[in-house]
Design goal:
By secondary structure, the chain is mainly alpha-helical. Helix content is 79%, strand content 1%. The chain has one domain. The longest helix is centred in the N-terminal third of the chain and has 27 residues.
Length: 304
């Protein structure tokens, strides 16, 4: 009961924060919540299965462009529903075609998918609509966008908690450990991977859709920026992709560091980010939370 009440208190404080913060503080909190949701959704599938996906920005951009295209013709809540359905449909098609791949082949395909979607949208805008970007005019302030992202983050965490108490999580872990052995043990590997990939992609699509009004003007280079995929990946790995709270633990320091680097080293922050990624892989390959658990177990063993 105490963790539940503590969680409600934290959510209440986070929801109240935009009412006392200035515009910069609210924007910072908005961006942090967005990346925390992206990293948590990414880890929902990639954490247990160990399928490293770089397609995050493909679904993020799909969500953002859906809002840009439909915001003037449909009510905003319905636009979010349509964006989620489009993300779900694309993820099912992609999943059925590619989840039989593994290792580096899946990584390469997921990166290629993001680039394919970006180039397709760019071609369509230039050759069909005759423009490269779209304006979004919605009566939404930064705090409204933040509250939506906070609600989505809470929902994502609740789904993660439920999953870890269900058989599907054990099936995903089995797939990550040894896919062939899991199949022989009776796990429907294809269906399990497809269901979680689609769920993860739908949440990521909603993050893009919710954040779209923040930019006012949207074009492919903004919403299909590969940095989004790499940052999401690094955040999840830093905190621990296999842990429920790992992606959030990784998102907080890395997002703040990214904001500082992009402001002070605008021409070099990508190189620095790459160096940080290499350090994380070597120093904490299983994430900060897993490292802390290992240290805690060692101390207990020494005390005994």
């Amino acid at each position: 009961m105490k963790p539940f009440l503590f969680g409600l208190l934290v959510i209440g404080l986070l929801a109240w924060a935009p009412l006392v913060l200035n515009d910069y503080g609210t924007g910072l909190l908005l961006g942090l919540t967005g990346y925390a949701t992206l990293a948590t959704a990414w880890a929902m599938f990639s954490g247990p299965t160990r399928y490293v996906s770089l397609a995050t920005v493909a679904f993020f951009g799909i969500g953002a462009y859906t809002v840009a295209v439909l915001s003037e013709t449909l009510p905003y809540p319905l636009v979010l529903v349509v964006a989620a359905l489009i993300g779900l449909s694309v993820s099912l098609v992609v999943g059925l075609a590619t989840l039989r791949l593994a290792g580096v082949y899946f990584v390469i395909f997921s990166f290629g998918l993001a680039e394919l979607v970006r180039q397709t949208v760019t071609w369509y805008e230039v050759n069909v609509t005759g423009t490269l970007g779209r304006y979004i005019f919605l009566p939404l302030e930064a705090r409204h966008i933040y509250w939506q992202l906070l609600a989505l983050l809470v929902l994502t965490l609740l789904i993660g908690i439920y999953m870890r108490k269900s058989r599907i999580w054990l099936a995903l872990v089995a797939v990550g450990d040894d896919e062939v052995a899991a199949r022989h043990a009776g796990v429907d590997v294809t269906r399990t991977k497809l269901a979680l990939f689609a769920l993860s992609a739908t949440i990521i699509t909603l993050v893009g859709a919710i954040q779209a009004p923040r930019w006012t003007y949207v074009e492919p280079t903004i919403v299909f920026n590969p940095t989004i995929s790499f940052l999401t990946l690094v955040m999840a790995l830093l905190g621990g992709a296999g842990k429920l709270w790992g992606p959030i633990v990784g998102a907080i320091p890395l997002f703040l560091l990214f904001e500082w680097l992009s402001a002070n080293f605008p021409n070099h922050y990508s190189i620095i980010l790459g160096g940080i990624f290499i350090l994380i892989v070597f120093a904490v390959p299983n994430g900060i939370l897993a490292r802390l658990e290992t240290l805690g177990q060692r101390r207990k063993g020494e005390a005994q």
